[in-house]
Design brief:
The chain is of the alpha/beta class. It has a single domain (about 5-250), classed as Rossmann fold. It is built from eight helices and seven strands.
Length: about 260
């Protein structure tokens, strides 16, 4: 996309996912960061203190950028209230903010935006069998087989956070169809502050740091013909039902980890 190191702008780099991705991104790209609090390990000229809900504040950060990785949101792992974050905050950050990032990226000539989506877009599957058993914290029998939930399965959000992430995916589809920009949605599953799968849901949905790093890099560097897509970011877990096969087929994703 550009001569020399690709110029990558990351929003929300201080969050859980940003910290998980940082080593791989720092090694490969010229990183700039946009957040309300800033980051302390980048040169000052590549640190932009701004609020994604304030469209005008985004323009300086987008100048000369090749790819934007939008991790900024409310309602995820880095939020004090988790998926129960207030609607006003999620409206501001996940809906208005995502629109602002995409619109300013388009106006600034950014080639690709990668949106951090979420497993929350499909958490409703876990309310019924066989998925209920797969995410149980109890010692229950594992089903013999189950249908995988892929990127084309019916969305089943059971939180407003999940709804806002689905909005972001469709907003990305709109920009991919109506502009020259490529938009890739990465449905990040269980990725916490510690690079280890906890009990229950993470046993099925875990994404290790190095698998998430690999897949994110593959999204950033995907061929320009990939104008729009959605990929599950999951490791190869024994109880896996969030299907990562599409990422393997399209991007050559090869998970190295998984809960056995």
């Amino acid at each position: 996309m550009a001569k020399g190191k690709l110029k990558l702008l990351v929003t929300g780099l201080n969050g859980v996912v940003g910290r998980a991705l940082r080593p791989a991104l720092e090694e490969r790209y010229e990183i700039s960061a946009l957040s309300r609090s800033g980051v302390d390990w980048l040169p000052a000229e590549r640190v932009f203190k701004a609020d994604i809900a304030d469209m005008q504040s985004l323009y300086p950060a987008m100048k000369g950028i090749d790819v934007v990785l939008n991790l900024a949101a409310d309602g995820g792992q880095s939020s004090a209230e988790g998926m129960n974050a207030g609607w006003d905050s999620m409206l501001r950050n996940n809906i208005v903010g995502t629109y602002n990032v995409l619109e300013v990226a388009k106006q600034s000539g950014v080639k690709r935006v990668i949106l951090a989506s979420s497993g929350a877009t499909a958490n409703g599957y876990e309310l019924v069998e066989p998925y209920k058993s797969l995410v149980s914290t109890e010692n229950v029998p594992i089903p013999d087989s189950w249908a995988m939930v892929n990127e084309f399965s019916e969305p089943k959000p059971i939180s407003l956070y999940g709804v806002t992430k689905l909005f972001g995916e469709d907003l990305g589809r709109y920009y991919a169809l109506t502009s020259e920009m490529s938009v890739i949605n990465l449905r990040i599953s269980s990725c916490g502050p510690v690079d280890k799968a906890g009990p229950g849901r993470a046993q099925a949905n875990w994404a290790s740091y190095r698998d998430l790093q690999q897949l994110t890099v593959k999204c950033i560097e995907a061929p320009p013909e990939i104008k729009f897509d959605i990929f599950w970011a999951t490791s190869d877990n024994r109880k896996l039902f969030r299907d990562n096969q599409h990422a393997k087929d399209v991007l050559g994703y090869a998970p190295q980890d998984g809960v056995k």
